[in-house]
Amino acid sequence: MSSEVHEGQILAGKFRIERVLGQGGMGVVVAARHLQLEERVALKFLLPEALGNPIAVERFAREARAAVKIKSEHVARVSDVGTLESGSPYMVMEYLQGEDLANWVRRYGAMPIPDAIEFLLQACEAIGEAHALGIVHRDLKPANLFVTHRADGSPCIKVLDFGISKLTATASGGAPELEMTRTQAVMGSPLYMSPEQMSSTRNVDTRTDIWALGVIFYEMLTGRVPFEAETMPQLCGMNLQDPPRPLRQLRPDVPEGLEAIVLRCLEKPRERRFNNVADLALSLAPYGSAVAQRSAQRIARVLGAAGIPSAPNPAPFAVAVPGQVVTATDFGASTPKKKSKSWVTLVLGALALLLGGGALLWARGTAAPEPAVEPVAVHSVVTPASAPAVAPAVVVAPAAPAPVEAATASTTPEVATASALPSAGPKPGPSKRVPPKPAPAVPQTTTAPAIDPLDGRR
Predict the structure, then answer these.
(1) Is residue 357 over pLDDT 50?
(2) Active site includes 161?
């Protein structure tokens, strides 16, 4: 029990202290009983030695203002504020039974994928509502996500501690609040801070919360954080420069698409992350349950009502997979394809057989003269390397009266080759001349459509 408060003590004339739930250097949280309402509440207040610290006092007031504005089920409700006899400000919060997510992960380890998605989306519901109000949390971490249970026994995530939240200019009420920044103050938890937050707490926006959500999701899936170091300078260097450790190295059963979502949250340039938590939630929804999909839709509606639309297709950027060849056509662009020498060889071989057979028949001197062999144009059809192997297609068509010159299109995906053969006229014979029969038409062969190498991998 804290030396400042003790069991049975009456605070503000209406709260009887039952026990201390937690205490830090600046404040304390106790379980208390409201004497008139006979309801258990959590009472949070500053310690007397913190009253001389203006940063601590402002942080405390900011947490109360932010929490009371957010009505989400996934934020611990603040029902009242006041001042104790000692002059210390206090806030009355709902009493929660359970444990924070940091203890949960330490106790159970990596979570099943559907559970991790549901937990993250519940946190996104609270953060989405905060962002719609122009509030950036800036200190999201597992210790500030509390796992409690609803009346039906289902788990419920509560987001805590908006003490270092930032009120942006988009918030209702006009200009942003004065920042609580001092050179000696560290605003945030280094393991979960975005690169821009490490550089300057003044210039962060909602995407710094998306970074923290990505780190939390990574930790729920693997039991580890993406950046681990022995010293603070080393951690900062990794955060600012190094790519995160590949998630699937620690958890191979995570789908590639889900790993790509996490990696997009952890993009160092914030403009490459998801624009808002609705885009993140909608990308996660296909990997979750029907409950997760409804949660994602709620987040999108909340942000949409605040004038923050979600992207029509908030899929993560393409992620290179080892051993897989990714071409520009996978991203909607076209690239020229190389000639296929084996196809040209087969076509020339077929021509040689046709000419050899005609010469043999002429040498034998058959009774009926052979029909004239017209000049032909032979086109080789090249299919993409990713298409299934098929027999080469040879198209024989009558040539124009003038000799046909060879042509090569080096800037197009297909390679067209044309060659001219000399005409062989009819040979005289003892029998009467028989008019040549027209050659049967050969059906035109079309190129098979290209198969997207990434098709079916997302």
Answers:
(1) no
(2) no
